[in-house]
């Protein structure tokens, strides 16, 4: 997958990459012609007693070389480094698309912060590797090889050997210090991660921190982390500060050797003064590529590690997918469960055990039970957020896995316990960014869920911005907006998973009444802790530790005098006490 993502991109841009590398080769090579022309100009000037006329052709060549280097460099930078940016965008889109195909079980094992880091830091490291670092290496290799070639072939082998003798030592020293820099840099990054995590945690949990007067402790903890980060940066500077002067020192030695032996060779007439000038020109040309070796190696190492991490995610196979011949029809809402047993990955005990029930189209099922009984799990399985064994959940007589996910989820709408509000308008939050619904439909869904009045009191009505930078909805308003979000899609099955817990009993009764009227002929599943929300259901099941303990209608369950009866009497006493 890693290779295929990169390969696919490189293949799609092979022409611009080929042209980019050709221009880069041309620019780097032409650049190394400059010292030679400069040297021969010096010789010509010396021969002609420093007259300008004989060197005019050379001057023209130098201008042409500079111009060609400018044009080719401009072209290759645009192509190679520009393609790096396109690669970054390509991988980001691939990753995002892939993340949306993965099921909740994937997300329950990964930290959100890590996933965000992959999407930002890792992709950027891959871009640096296949953009600027690749370009710098290729450019540097061509410049170094041709410069060294000219030093040996066009000037003098002995002089070149002597002058370049310290070079391997410089490179070895650079790689040695580079490794040290890298390990200290890793510590800086870890410290940076801790500091950002702390900031993020404090901002998200600001209400809890204030409510428990934890500001002072948190400031102290943050101070310690921040000082740790500063110290690790100082440790990094201690080694990184040594690198540039050491390299400069190494090259100064090269220049001294060149000056010492080169000038003697000029005096002895073994090389011309022009050759000597050209030689020093070549020596200057290789300084910058050699200096960047350490940086390039680090970028490559980081890029490959990042690519590995991205590959780990990209190679996770989505476990919930359409079967090859998936039914592309919206089911109508006849539900059956046959001995349904389900366990979460890694969980010791099953979340649900041997659940059998029949919910014909148009009926309402009530689900009640203590916390952790498996009520939300039942809802999640009906949306196929997790896979179940074939034949355990049937929708309209067909296995749930036979339907395309799109059609199944269009037909079954879940209003979860916690509603996610997007930082957008009320309207966008109801239609979920689909522009197929008219204003009339949006208002009708809002009226049915009893949120229309609240919306009309917002400053811009349906165009009011919600979220951090807009209006913050109360718990009850959020729940009602979530019900409108489900109703506008006119689902065959509506599942309210404790979706009325934040509204008062009177509002709950009015919403349920409104749903009863509007959803005639449609299937409903009402999961609730409050008996008042589901007492009118055609069938009620009492879940406990993943199994059905009792089932029946409100009346028959009361007559049984079991768990349901106990819950009912406890809730009645509670109501009377409050009254
Ligand atoms: N993603 C998950 N991974 C592992 N175990 C889970 C996961 N989600 C829920 N569980 C476990 O499955 C059991 C049933 O959870 P579920 O959320 O279905 O209960 P519930 O009846 O809806 O509870 P509540 O009324 O508190 O919402 C619990 O023991 C819970 O810890």
Automatic annotation (TrEMBL):
Transmembrane as UniProt keyword: yes
Record carries keyword Membrane: yes
Ranges of residues in domain ABC transporter: 335-570
Pfam families the UniProt entry points to: ABC_membrane, ABC_tran
SMART domains: AAA
InterPro entries registered for this protein in UniProt: AAA+_ATPase (IPR003593), ABC1_TM_dom (IPR011527), ABC1_TM_sf (IPR036640), ABC_transporter-like_ATP-bd (IPR003439), ABC_transporter-like_CS (IPR017871), P-loop_NTPase (IPR027417), Type_1_exporter (IPR039421)
Mode of membrane association: Multi-pass membrane protein
Alphabetical keyword list: ATP-binding, Cell membrane, Membrane, Nucleotide-binding, Transmembrane, Transmembrane helix, Transport
A single cellular component GO annotation: plasma membrane
Residues passing through the membrane, by range: 15-34, 54-76, 133-153, 159-177, 236-261, 281-300
GO molecular function, one term: ATP hydrolysis activity
Subcellular localization, as worded in the UniProt entry: Cell membrane
Superkingdom of this protein's organism: Bacteria
SUPFAM superfamilies hit by this protein: ABC transporter transmembrane region, P-loop containing nucleoside triphosphate hydrolases
Annotated ranges, domain ABC transmembrane type-1: 18-302
UniProt protein name: Xenobiotic ABC transporter ATPase
Top-level taxonomy: Bacteria, Bacillati, Bacillota, Bacilli, Bacillales
